Amino acid sequence: MTMNELRGRGRPRSSGTHRCDRCRNLVARIRVHWPDGAVCGACFSSAVNASGACAHCREFRLLPGRSPIGEEICRDCAGITTNLTCSKCGREAERRRGGHCAACIVTEDLTGILKPNEPPDLRLHRLIRELASTDRPRSIITWMRLPEAQALLNSIGARTLELSHESFDALPPAHSVEHLREMLVHHHILPGRGDIRLFRFEAWLDTRLGSFEDRPRIHQPLEVFGRWHHLRRLRTMPPQTNMDYATRSAKQEITEAGKFMVWLDTEHGLHIDKIRQEHIDLYWSEGPSTRKHIRNLLQQRKLTGKGRALKAKARQAVASPMSSTTSRLNAIRTVIEADEVYLGTRIAAIIFLLYGTPIGKLASLQSNQIHADANGMTIALGSQPATIPEPLIPLFTDHLRHGANSRSMNKESPWLFPSTMAGQHISGNALWNRLKIFDLQPLATRNTTLFDLSKELDPASLSALLGYTSMTMTKHAAHAGMQMGSYPATMPTRGEFGPEIT
Ligand SMILES: [Zn+2]
Ligand SMILES: [Zn+2]
Ligand SMILES: [Zn+2]
User: Fold this and answer.
1) Helix (H) or strand (E) holding 310
2) CA 82 to ligand 1 centroid distance, Å
3) Which of 3, 248, 278, 482 has the most neighbouring CB atoms within 10 Å?
């Protein structure tokens, strides 16, 4: 929320001659005339940023309108003709600069400032994505306008400020520096400084990757492997992990991966994307046994859809169902790790991705369709209860315990995803809108049935493919209700954010 809105909302005094029919204040200018009357700038701003279940049609969407008795209603039910669709992404939202919504503007502006492609930097791409997909892109815009923030972002864009704790340490101490650091750590772009071994590993990795800076054909895939596979995995390890051993074996795998890519490049002029089984067989046959450590690299590239079907372990050719499995597993990982997204939304996305449950059916699931006992947890979706993979159980348990009921006004709701309206479950539309944050469109369009992943892969292999332990999951569940303390001006007001899914 901007300072103007802060001032506007509570403004008791009159400063003009026009009466706003919503706040009853006298204002200098009426922003818009809607069916319920004249609306001032401050009231307009809060109206186009409130979403929830429409009191008339029950759709979960933007609620700019007011019914004759003052209920919040959607644009259609209110008969509002003001265009409230972002002309870039098509989401229902306040149209700001150029008809684009705040999230699109954050993406555009940050891309302009951070120049994530000059040269390409995956971390910057990720930072932009994360900041644009928060619940409050407007506060990011506000923050970006602060001169201190601008200076920081500009120097990152000019590549004069490196994204590392050391370079942040070297700056004069300032709130904006610490704030940006927190955001980077929150989004796993900088490591938390909790574990010194992790800290050292990151430094080692930077140096190692730096030594390939002039060889992008090696640098890029090695960075993916080192940072996005190993570092991420190390950061989410449960506290009792032997970090000494974990970081040592990660270093060994990265070192061997680098050596393999150098061999491919020098001996065969090949990028790792182009290798065939013969190259692996040859590499393994002619060198020391440590060369076997590239197994995980090959496995990992296959899982992320980058590698071909090579016998890192015997496996059938990667056919299209497998690659869609891969993208779904990746999507599931993204959902699990999106600690900043409300748990109910993540649970819905997980069920959708795992079992291919159509959205309409998903929205009307009841909590008692989930059954837990000593053997694990199942969900009754078809004739046979489907098993919920073991590492995901803490997330489901947490949602059942806290999410499905206590956050809503419907204390005794039978629904797994209740609406804010007493006794209702969330509408399919509303749920699909909520799921948009995960960008599932490439995998499915609304109400398309995906195949049931849990039937393709038994729960144990699913767990293994997801690569999580239940300890990690407990951590992700525990983070669920956590507020994003790292954002500026986050005073949550009903008007700005609207109610959650439940
Ligand atoms: Zn007003
Ligand atoms: Zn409506
Ligand atoms: Zn947009």
Assistant:
1) none
2) 17
3) 248
Kindly report, residue by residue over 331-360, the tens digit of the pLDDT: 888 888 777 778 888 999 999 888 888 788
Higher pLDDT: 323 or 377? It is 377
How many Å lie between the centroid of ligand 3 and the Cα of residue 118? Answer: 24
CB 318 within 8 A of CB 302: yes
Answer whether the bond into residue 119 is a cis peptide, omega within 30°.
Answer: yes
**Confidence (pLDDT) at 309:** 56
**Among all ligands shown, which has an atom nearest to the Cα of 56?**
2
Question: Residue ranges of the domains in the chain?
Answer: 3-82, 102-186, 196-303, 335-483
Give the ligand whose atoms come closest to the C-alpha of residue 84. 3
Best CATH choice for the domain 335-483 from the list 2.30.30, 3.30.1600, 1.10.443, 3.30.1380: 1.10.443
- Are residues 53 and 421 in contact, defined by beta-carbon separation less than 8 angstroms? yes
Which residues have beta carbons under 5 A from ligand 3 (an ion)?
Answer: 86, 88-89, 101, 104
For residue 482, report the phi and psi dihedrals to the nearest 5 degrees.
-65, 135
> 495 CA distance to ligand 2 centroid (A)?
17
Could you tell me the distance, in angstroms and rounded to a whole number, from the CA of residue 58 to the centre of ligand 2? 6
Q: Which two tokens stand for residue 235?
A: 């950061």
Q: How far apart are CA 478 and CA 7, in angstroms?
A: 35
Q: How far lies 283's CA from each of 213, 297, 336, 339, in Å?
A: 24, 14, 37, 41
- Write down the mean pLDDT value for the chain: 78
Place of tokens 């159980």: 393
**Of the bound ligands, which one is closest to the alpha carbon of residue 67?**
2
For residues 267 and 122, give the distance between their C-alpha atoms in angstroms, rounded to a whole number: 28
Ligand with the closest atom to the CA of 14: 1
Q: How much distance in Å is there from the Cα of 441 to the middle of ligand 2?
A: 24
Ligand 2 centroid to Cα of residue 32, in Å, is 20
Give the distance (Å) from ligand 2 centre to CA of residue 380.
32
Give the percent of the chain with pLDDT over 90: 26
Give the residues across from 30 on adjacent strands. 40
Cα of 39 vs centre of ligand 1, distance in Å, is 5
DSSP assignment of 116-135:
TBTTB-HHHHHHHHHHHTSS
Give residue 88 CA to ligand 1 midpoint distance, Å. 29
Tokens of 474: 């407990």
129 C-alpha vs ligand 3 centroid, how far in Å?
Answer: 13
